[in-house]
Design brief:
Length: about 160
């Protein structure tokens, strides 16, 4: 049996180098992140309306009356803001994770896109808290999307550096 030479290169690979990351801006990540935010907010909002409508007034009045009462209910508005904000964080996280680099930039772009689409397609509220809700919802939207990107940056996918 032959002894291996201690001065030669090893036969097996010692370390796997991470795959090189394409540093171009990834619109696909932004679109999927914004779609995650919008779809999640819509589904969560529908579920929240159904739950609150059943809890607040089961069997009283029509659907329009229940929805109008919900628009003036502070607990409902705060719950919808928290759920919507959580979906925004998730959308920013998804955008940063799919992009695999420049996490905050992609999360911010997804937040801007979902905010613009949300303003265009969803009607504004006219309840007693509409000013405060608009201020909080629009004002916190981009920071929450950035929070999702920051969460990816803090714990990047395997094989990627910050």
């Amino acid at each position: 049996m032959r002894e291996p030479n201690p001065y030669s290169a090893p036969d097996a690979r010692v370390e796997d180098l991470p795959e090189p990351v394409d540093r171009r801006f990834r619109w696909k990540a932004v679109l999927i992140g914004a779609a995650t935010d919008l779809a999640g907010s819509t589904v969560a909002g529908i579920a929240l309306v159904v739950v609150f409508a059943l809890l607040v007034a089961p069997g009283e009045g029509g659907v329009e009356d229940k929805v109008d009462r919900l628009a003036q209910s502070w607990p409902f508005l705060m719950a919808s803001m928290i759920l919507g904000g959580s979906c925004t964080v998730l959308g920013g996280y998804v955008a940063g994770r799919i992009a695999r680099h420049s996490f905050l930039k992609h999360a911010l772009a997804a937040g801007v896109l979902s905010l613009a689409v949300g303003i265009l397609f969803f009607r504004g509220d006219e309840g007693p808290y509409s000013g405060l809700i608009a201020f909080l919802g629009y004002g916190l939207h981009l920071p929450l999307a950035l929070l999702g990107g920051w969460l990816v940056w803090r714990n990047p996918p395997r094989g990627l550096e910050r």
